[in-house]
Amino acid sequence: MPFLSAAQRKAGRELRSGTLVADSKQTLLCTYLSAVLLVGLVANSLFGWSWADPIAALVIAAVAVKESREAWRGDACCGPIPITNAAAETDACTCCNRPPSRGLSKRSTVSLKQ
């Protein structure tokens, strides 16, 4: 899954799609949460550590609270990419660490408006 997340993030940056970049981050987060859950279950199963599963659940809850607070505040929000000639020429949008656009001409920008 980390490879899928990296591919999604790369495609999102190339396409200047905040939605795809955000989805790649969500995919990576789900991978980490699944790994934490698996470690807790394996530790409980192999070593009889009955406390490992609840600790894993607390880690998952902490991550969920952190993500919720960021979403509530709008810290991780990516706004829509403005489709204007000025925005295409200056690359003013820096949301989600987007690289500067490559090959976006005025002609393609104008056709996107319609």
From TrEMBL:
Keywords: Cytoplasmic vesicle, Endosome, Membrane, Synapse, Transmembrane, Transmembrane helix, Zinc
Transmembrane segments: 26-43
Ranges in coiled-coil conformation: none
Subcellular compartments: Cytoplasmic vesicle, Secretory vesicle, Synaptic vesicle membrane; Early endosome membrane
Cation efflux protein transmembrane domain boundaries: 4-70
Main location group: membrane
Family: Belongs to the TMEM163 family.
Name the UniProt record assigns to this protein: Cation efflux protein transmembrane domain-containing protein
Organism: Streptomyces osmaniensis
